[in-house]
Amino acid sequence: MTSTAGSTATPRTWTVTAREDTGPIALVGLRASWAPLAKQSVVAALVVAAAVTSTLTPWLPVTDAPRMWTGVALALGGLLVAAVMARWPGAARAELVVPAIDFIAIGLLRYGTGDTRSVFLAVVVLPVIWMAASPGRRHVLYPLLGTCATLLLPYVLEPTEPRPSELVRLAFAVVVYGATAAVTNELARQADVRLSTAQRRRRVAEGEIDRAALVQQSLLPASTEGLPPELHALGVCIPARTVGGDFYDWFPTPDGAAFTLGDVMGKGVGAGMIAAAVRSLVRSTVDEPDAATAVRRAAAGLATGTSDVESAQFTTCFHVRIDRDGHARWVDAGHGLSLLRRADGAVRSLRSGHLPIGVGTSWSSETTDLEPGDVVVSVSDGVLDLFGGDLDALDRFEAWVAERSHPQQLVDGITELAHRGEHPDDVTVLCIAYRP
To answer: What's the distance, CA 54 to chain centroid?
Structure first.
């Protein structure tokens, strides 16, 4: 989100980048279409490994090789069906056909590798979990029926009367796998409820953040209409997040105009709320000639009686009041990132030893007389990140400012640097040119 305001009466423009739900949804859909293939790959690999191991290992019996390899073929057929679903996501609606095939494939594998003596029945737990993880209580019944089909398939292929002990064993196996299906289904249901709740809360939070961003943008000056013709202002604010803690402002005063740039410690909605409060308190001093009065009133308005240092709720601020004749009274509340660029290219720092709002207790103004062509430039510390972010960043920034005489060049240049890549902190610039 970028906000700019210029030195003409042209309304400010900003861009609010909407969240693209298409990308994440498309990604989730892509993953869902590939999920059956991933699951079936595991089942097919185990069935093939079981058949090959039984064939090559003498202590694992093969009682019916054709049926065993038929089971392998069915598992590989299920893999082919899953691959089709991955290629055409619309076919994934019939996903449960694949684990249904697996129940038969595992039943044939079990029958061909010793029937009741087969060691491979445990593979059936995979399609059981696969089906039971789908929403709906009916998906507890489906794997239960599938398990029954796997266990009773030998009696269909070779009708015999099972022994009582065999019936008890089969019944116990059905109960165990049925319980597995029930537990899996319930866990999946609870996870789905938690996910839906989290998504709903996220949508609400995103809506609140978007509204907060629009409110914050509405607080930035729309144009320079009302400012004296001797003063030309230009500003830009590029938050690192949707809502930032930086702000700039200007408004006419009885003798000229007042200009402010503030940087609230932190980011997000909380910082944006404090920025809005500081801006309003500073504006309430429109009739006060002393720039320091605005900072003192902002500090008094934000005082909570607790330690703002501990809560990290403090604001650095540069506030300047410039008369029509170029006489400027300014106060620097722990900001230290304001420059005066003279018309001849000389650069001077407008800095004092005062502490930020929320930390300091007293501030006093300093005076400077502007000459025609002079430009006051104030930036947030996020701008220094664009110049390396190290100890020499301020020197590089001052040299960069010295090469540009017009506020438009300064603002456009910093905007271009900010848009070249991600910036970890808010980037804000305020330029005031004195051109009588």
So the answer is: 51
Structure tokens at 90: 């619309």
CB within 8 Å of 415: residues ≥ 6 apart = 2, 4, 236, 238, 429
Burial grade of 391 (CB within 10 A; 0-12, 13-18, 19 or more): exposed
CA angle (219, 222, 226) in 5-degree steps: 110
Domain 224-434: give its CATH architecture. Answer: 4-Layer Sandwich (3.60)
User: Beta-strand (E) ranges in 181-289?
Assistant: 231-238, 246-252, 256-264
Task: Please state the separation of Cα 221 from the chain's center in Å.
Answer: 29
User: Does the predicted model carry a pTM greater than 0.85?
Assistant: no
Which DSSP helix (H) or strand (E) runs through 417? helix 407-419
Domain ranges of the chain: 22-202, 224-434
- Three-state DSSP state, 379: strand
Closest to 319 measured CA to CA, from 286, 342, 347, 348: 286
100-144 residue pLDDT tens? 999 999 999 999 998 878 889 999 999 999 999 998 889 999 999
